[in-house]
Amino acid sequence: GEAEHRRVKIFYAQTNKNRPNLQIARHERRQRLLNALATKVGQKRRLGHTVRKSMALDFAASEPLPRTDPSQHYQMSHSTKYSENLIKWIQICQNFVPKLKNHLLARILGGDAHAGGAIASGASEAHARTIAFVDDRIYKHKTIRFNYTTYDVRRKQDSCNPRTQANVMVGNGTGSRDDKDKYPYWDARLIGIFHVCILRLSFQTFDVLWVRWFGADDRQSKWGLKANRMPRIGFQNAENETSFGFLDPNAVLRACHVIPAFAFGYDNNGLLTSIGRPRQEVDDENEPDTDWAYYYVNMCVVFPANQLQANKVKVG
User: Fold this and answer.
1) Which pTM was predicted?
2) Cα distances (Å, whole numbers) of residue 233 to 96, 123, 188, 290, 301
3) What's the rounded Cα separation, in Å, for the pair 296 and 231?
4) For 48-64, what is each residue's pLDDT tens digit?
5) What is d(CA 15, CA 7) in angstroms, rounded to the nearest whole number?
6) DSSP per residue over the chain, as a string?
7) Contact 159, 141 (CB under 8 A)
8) Residues 6+ apart with CB under 8 A from 115
9) Which of 187, 206, 188 is nearest to 197 (CA)?
10) N or C, where is the chain less crowded by C-beta within 10 Å?
């Protein structure tokens, strides 16, 4: 309309005056896409479609992180700006608080803190009830960074968040190094990143990752470079008690990249509309509450395979 020239002037003020026409066009396109997305979400709400709840912060949420100290394994914010009431989460997710208490108790008592929230050895539910959350709140965060060492002994960093880059890997503590065909890692999908403040004899703060666990496909007998196969994994069935759990960020090795195994089709894995699937996994409007049945873990090797063999380095 007649006021359109004002919008162009606003966009011009946001450019660096170097080739402004191109920058104005980019601003206009970005605004148009955001408006279309907002319209689509509004239509779903008016039609009564379920708008997925999420433990992740919105893209527009501001939570800047300073530069990471390379000696730290991970970095995340400890801001209290974004919080959730635990009483509400008891209604949304029945086992959320009990599993969280069991996980924290395992870390306090020195048990297995990344085994799906199992209670530490020698502990009981009575011990878990001694944990009290300060103000009954948990504090959400946008991203977490992991520092790790690459195969060629260089420092590298992965930035993970539940919205886009949400897959991480940890060491499989039950695996045997002698079994070369056994996948030696556990993979998980981040659902939420948060920290909690508790009272148990003293005031303590814990960083926690809420995850949905993958499981290795037992039908795959071999994987690796020699077998020309990538490891195949799939989400655990939701009826499994350990399909969801909590994870100590210190246990994470690094982020991982998984590729949908399209040939195996879809599977809801016993999970319907749930906060455990905060975003639509399958790009099919007729199948909004499904996952890909299996995924391939994308192996990334720095050196060529022939160089590794020349150096007698075993892979897979």
Assistant:
1) 0.72
2) 25, 32, 10, 16, 19
3) 6
4) 444 456 677 777 778 88
5) 13
6) -TTHHHHHHHHHHTS-SSSHHHHHHHHHHHHHHHHHHHHHHHHHHHTTPPPPP-SSPPTT------PPPTTSSEEE----SSEEEHHHHHHH-TTHHHHHHHHHHHHHHTS-TTSTTPPPTT--HHHHTT-EEEEEEEEE-S-EEEEEE-TTS-EEEEEE-SSSS-EEEEE-TT--TT-TTS--EEEEEEEEEEEEEEEESEEEEEEEEEEEEEEE-TT----BTTTTB--EEEEPPTTSTTSEEEE-GGGEEEE--EEE-GGG-EE-TT--S-TTS-S--SS-TT-TT-EES-EEE----SS-HHHHHHTT----
7) no
8) 106, 242, 245
9) 206
10) N
pLDDT in tens, 100-152: 888 888 888 875 555 444 444 445 667 777 888 888 889 999 999 999 888 77
